[in-house]
Amino acid sequence: MQDKNFDTLAHKFAKNIYGTPKGDIRAAVVWRDLQLALAELGGRPLRVLDAGGGFGFFSQKLAALGHEVILCDISAEMLALAKAQIDSAESDLNIRLVHSPIQALTLAEYGQFDLILCHAVAEWLTDARTTLSQLTELLKPGGLFSLMFYNKEAMRFHSLVSGNFDYVAAEFKIKKKVGLTPTHPLFIDDVRGWFDDWNMELVSQSGVRVIHDYLKHCQPQGFDYAKLLEMELIYSQREPYISLGRYVHFIGRG
Fold first, then answer.
1. What are the residues whose beta carbons fall under 8 Å from the beta carbon of 164, sequence distance 6 or more?
2. Which of 12, 95, 119, 241 could form a cystine bridge with 235, CB 3.0-4.6 A?
3. Cα 11 from Cα 95, distance rounded (Å)
């Protein structure tokens, strides 16, 4: 088994993730969390690693604030998209592109970072725990680790309320998987245990898309997506809604 490479799906992935209402929700929740956490580090320029960051949505936002960013991805097509966007940015962005598996990132070559991002990557890894543990070795003492992962229990619940009982009974194993359906979703409690093992304090916990993915197909007249985004932000950090998030975003302090 191999970790997922999005070379053949790069453009579809970029459009599907951030070119939709669900992408707006994802961006808003994660960016809110990051801004609050980064405020604790002060206003100084930071060294940032975006591990498996694709075309660098958050890399570009952070670099625009004056931070130094290394954007690493296994997909050459994703990095080509990143380069095109960086080159066309209104201001110069201090982003170094690294075409590599994140497992190949070493302390000797890249040093330590104030902030490490690893978003929507863990659920595509054949051994997420080992890979993420290696990433934490690149974190400065007191640095922040931002991890967003696909929530297996939310995947189950969504299938149940959709009536896909056979899919649930088969433990999500089907003959042909959709290209953007994660292959290794994670349980929240397992990931919390990993943070404990890494001696990291969880400073932020949010569910990403705690409402959107459970909406009825027919919305009431005058349904307002701006109001949906507002509600997502309100309920994203409350239980039981965190545990219903299609993704979960943890920020830990090393």
1. none
2. 241
3. 21
